[in-house]
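Sequence in, structure out.
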Amino acid sequence: MTRFPYQNYDAAGLAELVQKKEVTAAEIVESAIARLERLNPKINAVIHKMYEKARLAAEKITGKEPFAGVPMLVKDISQEIKGEPITCGAKSLRDCLAEEDATFVKRARATGVVFLGITNVPEFALMGTTEPKYYGPTRNPWNKDYTPGGSSGGSAAAVAAGIVPIAGANDGGGSIRIPAAYCGLFGLKPSRGRMPAGPFSGRHWQGASVDHVLTRSVRDSALMLDLIKGYEAGAAFPPPPFDHNYLECVSQGPINKLKIAFCLRSPIGTEVHRECREAAIKAAQLLESLGHIVDEKEAPVDGNKIAQSYMTLYFGEVAADIASLEEVLGRKARMNDVEPATWMLGLLGKVTSSEEWVLSIREWDTAAFEMEAFFEDYDLYMTPTTADPPSRIGEQDMAPKEATLIKLVSSLNLIKAVKKSGFVDNLIKRSLKRTPFTQLANLTGQPAMSAPLHMTMEGLPVGVQFIAAKGREDILYRLAGQLEQSQHWIRVEENPMFKAEIDG
């Protein structure tokens, strides 16, 4: 096999090598396999390997595909590959195999990518870290003692380590943007309806969750969106109109100087770490130096109401997940079928009324109208992506006494009393204090991205978030292409694992 510096290329760069016949798809796949075998034991990003299928797929690459021969990983939830495991990070689903390709997977395969395996997720993709009990934690390539974030943490770690240049992800509350921020990657959550959700569902998390990818380069993200986006029969939400090319937006840069509002304050009133504040402040200074107008101004939404609405969604979706699990198991679910936190969230979902649910959805719509009015005056809204840098592995584990309390509450059927006691308000604060900025775009359906623009004193990346009006991914890509050329953009190739494991 020809030796070449595989890890030095983004996805578009690898495809160009194949298109020019300088390297074969088979050679690229073998390089990716070799790198995965060396690095995955150190970071636990990939939980299922598909080497033989990848080799067969590589032989069928013509060299004419836009992502010809590019190795890609998909996430272990909502990105099903027919015949392969789809466990959602749950022990109880370890024997489940996908019956059909997800539409996202079908469209991605048509671009020429070669699927190499499936990445780790927290159970049911519920947490902002990737530390499932069944598969074990995924570790951050910048420092293995820290989390890569979640729920797309396995995908982020694999891209940051240079195992693959592109990996599937999805974002229902920040699950593309949070791991992008923590791993020094680019991550964009598209507008509601932009990406296919089928064929198993017409919507994910009532439209709050959208599939896309995590990438090293902005152009890879833009090109994949160009190729996968669009109408899907049976989808709950039509795609917002856009007749142009996102890839062209990346190279063109902003057409006019942008008017950008930014805010450093947590929408739920919790503390924001100095490093995350510094990231946004530096970004504001950079934007002004590029000729953009930057105003410190808070979004016109009630952050606490948004948080409550988001957690109501959480409760309901987890309760539904457990009900679906019962269909798989053929019996009533028991507490030991899932992790304690999952069980508690499911119990809270069972005692959430239909009235609470409807009022919660109405709050989404209120926020969407408020934000669209806001975007009549501003092109973008900027915040830190997260309120804290990456946490240490195990730092956010549930204490044994908390697990015992959940068991007690469950067995005594006291969940209604617990809910009324103020527990839920405390849960919201605790759950979202590290990541309070990302949920807004999920509930409003607006596109948002995390750009890697800051490194902490401890050598860990944190990101800066930008939200645009619904359907305006083009503005985000134009700005991202401009920011990518600045000296502030974090080069993922600089992380210790990437540099220490150069091929050849």
